[in-house]
Design goal:
Oligomer: single chain
Number of domains: 1
Structural class: alpha/beta
Helix content: 25-40%
Radius of gyration: 15 Å
Number of strands: 8
Mean pLDDT: 94
Distance between the termini: 22 Å
CATH architecture: 3-Layer(aba) Sandwich
Strand order of the largest sheet: 5-4-1-6-7-8
CATH class: Alpha Beta
CATH topology: Rossmann fold
Order of helices and strands: HEEEHEHEHEHEHEH
Low-confidence stretches: 163-167
Length: about 170
């Protein structure tokens, strides 16, 4: 596991069920509301500051995700991604990465096409069983409730221990 963690250069996140608890709330006017965890956000900020590339890959399309990505300075955002692995291929080409250098955090069936291929597959504890079975790391926290922070802390700790890592 330590070797897997130390190779990671890019971390991609699903949104619903990972960056949020998975609830999708609509107002009477049809506006969508999502609640994001501040500690998870801080973890992503820390990844960015330590040189990781961060990305969001989600099958849904909403301006809320663009706002959150902007707030967290996440440079790569793929919305409406019906096949999430296509987004991973774009990222691999853009940053000249191998699959072993990519971590992905997902929670449901549409994430499996990425999770089964990347170097580090992660999920929250409340992910569906099919996802938990294929992940290298299952957080003991739920989506939108600290799972992302636990994963980001794990990645940063591995880089600190890696003597080749330069801040």
């Amino acid at each position: 596991m330590k070797e897997k963690l130390s190779r990671i250069k890019l971390v991609a996140f699903d949104v619903d069920g990972v960056l949020t608890n998975g609830d999708i709330i609509y107002t009477n006017s049809g506006e969508e509301i999502k609640a994001f965890n501040a500690k998870d956000g801080q973890g992503i900020n820390l990844l960015n500051k330590r040189g990781f590339i961060t990305a969001i890959i989600t099958a849904r399309q909403t301006s809320i995700v663009d706002k959150r990505a902007k707030d967290l300075e996440i440079p790569e955002v793929f919305q409406g991604a019906k096949n999430k692995f296509e987004a991973i291929k774009v990222l691999m080409a853009k940053y000249n990465l191998d699959l072993s250098e990519i971590a992905y955090v997902g929670d449901d069936l549409p994430d499996i096409c990425v999770l089964e291929k990347v170097g580090l597959a992660c999920c929250p504890v409340d992910a569906v069983d099919e996802v938990k079975r294929i992940c290298h790391f299952v957080s003991d926290k739920e989506g939108g409730k600290g799972a992302v922070r636990q994963i980001t802390d794990l990645l940063m700790a591995a880089k600190v221990e890696d003597s080749a890592w330069v801040k």
